[in-house]
Amino acid sequence: MRRVRYTVNGGPEVLFLEDVPEPEPGPGELLVRAEAIGVTLPTVRKVREGSAPSSLGGEIAGTVAALGQGVSGFQVGDRVIGLAFADAYAESAVLRQDMATRIPGEASAADAVALWRSGLVARGVHEAGRVLPGESVLITAAASAVGTLAIQYAKAGGAVRIVAAVSTLDKAAPLRELGADEVVVYGDEWGDPVDVVLDGVGGDLLHQAVRALKPRGRLVVFSSGGGMVDAYELLARGASAIGFQMAAIAFGEPETYARWRDEQWELYRSGALRPLIHARLPLAEAAKAHEIIESRGNVGKVVLEP
User: Which CATH superfamily is domain 118-247 in?
Assistant: First the structure.
């Protein structure tokens, strides 16, 4: 089978395609023939900035081809999606059974990859920010897969003003179609303060995010970009900063995770939640997929299709 990997850190150019034997599922694992693979910013950053080259993990959707010892609740032929911790950029990959979820019959593999984990993060940050009907929300990285779904969750939750913060106004039209009332650019003025900021960028942008809050506002940080929050700015506003990590819900609150997952598929079925796919590229163009993410050129999910 074909697999994408890298042996030195760097930009998209370090990715290469190779032929390797198909993996075998171990105990409690599924072998999945991949139909769609999600490209994420943390993976792109790991290739460029990681301490050493490592296996490329990611979201995969496809069909179960084999079962490892002790697997229950799945069978060969099931359509599933999950997070592969190793060798996700491949024609086949291994999934732990506790990380796999069935794909509803009406969902394509690409839609499932665009919706599943990004939608759960969008739901999670909405909950962490305690966004109430009638409140205002500002979302950074609003054109990302998570951001586009966070706009829709804010709209469905009754937010009366949704501000989408992006790198360029070229992305404004599709974000307004999803429910954004205003689209602003990083570094520019963001208008009137808001009740909640959902930050998916991090870094120096956190200073502007805190200053965008109303008194007693809430900042939810869910980016892998790091950064520092100015404690005095929080104090001056009586505001709060909240960190959100999806793994804490998936492993620490499995009942909540399962409920969010089931509700998300229902919203998808009803048309209330619409995943955006920016590009669908063959596996051989993984470098191009990383270029899109690094250049902040995407509106929605970038998907590889073996």
Answer: NAD(P)-binding Rossmann-like Domain (3.40.50.720)
